[in-house]
Amino acid sequence: MPSTDGRLKGKVAWITGASRGIGREIALLFAREGAALAVSARSADALAKVAGEVEQISGQAPLAGVLDVKDASKVDQFADNILDKYKRLDILVNNAGVTRDGLFVRMDESDWDEVLDTNLKGTFLCMRAVSKVMMKQRSGRIINMASVIGLIGNAGQANYAASKAGIIALTKSVAKELGSRNVLVNAIAPGFIETEMTGALSELVRQAVLESIPIGFFGKPEHVAHAALYLASDDSSFVTGQVITVDGGMVM
């Protein structure tokens, strides 16, 4: 059962890619824990549904905006909108991401660019948009969604693996820059989590993956959400520059 201890009471959190899967679960958990929310995604309909769920939980409508994180000016504008509404920003969860899988030798440049621009550049742009206000506050939490694929690679996902490995390196570098201002920057590397993305896998692939997970089952979005809650809360006040794998022991 999700905890409801108010661990984020008084905090303002921005979650990108909040319309479904892991992002949605993080938004709902953070709402239950008392955070005021800003949520963004590319799908207006799905985002509106999540915003309604958040309001039902917390009694407060979140700031919701359709946003493509590749667009620097729109990212900066949304960050400004958060500050206009809440006057502060304590937590950023960079969850927006895409895949465009294909064998490396046949990969179109457009598929490479779409994945790197969304996953890695988008993370950079959102981090840049919030870092100055967090530094001024002398407090903040930035949580970047990486992947075990960024640690071990995967055939057919060279672009995705590169983007997620880049997020890990970006996380560690920025953690070193912002640590003295009490802005903590960490990453989560989920393994195979039951989402729409993994639901498209064939049964043969699913079985092969399952055999590589010592715990013996796929993760759920709430497993990742609780790791994000830990990193967003005061419980992680001495943790920065880290990558937490949530993968059932797949990568050790």
Provide a descriptive summary of the structure in words.
Strand 4, helix 4 and strand 5 form a beta-alpha-beta unit. It is globular and about 50 Å long. It has one domain: NAD(P)-binding Rossmann-like Domain (Rossmann fold), CATH 3.40.50. It contains nine helices and seven strands; from the N terminus they run βαβαβαβαβααβαααβ.
CATH homology group: NAD(P)-binding Rossmann-like Domain
Under CATH, the topology can be stated as: Rossmann fold
End-to-end distance, in Å? 27 Å
Helix content: 40-55%
Please identify, by name, the CATH architecture. Answer: 3-Layer(aba) Sandwich
Query: Which sheet architecture does the biggest sheet show?
Result: 7 strands, parallel
Kindly report the oligomeric state of this protein: single chain
Point out poorly predicted stretches: none
Provide the spatial order of strands within the biggest beta sheet. Answer: 3-2-1-4-5-6-7
Count of separate DSSP helical elements: 9
Order of helices and strands: EHEHEHEHEHHEHHHE
Brief overview:
By secondary structure, the protein is an alpha/beta fold.
Structure keywords:
alpha/beta; 7 strands; 48% helix; 7-stranded parallel β-sheet; Rossmann fold; globular; 9 helices; 252 residues; single chain
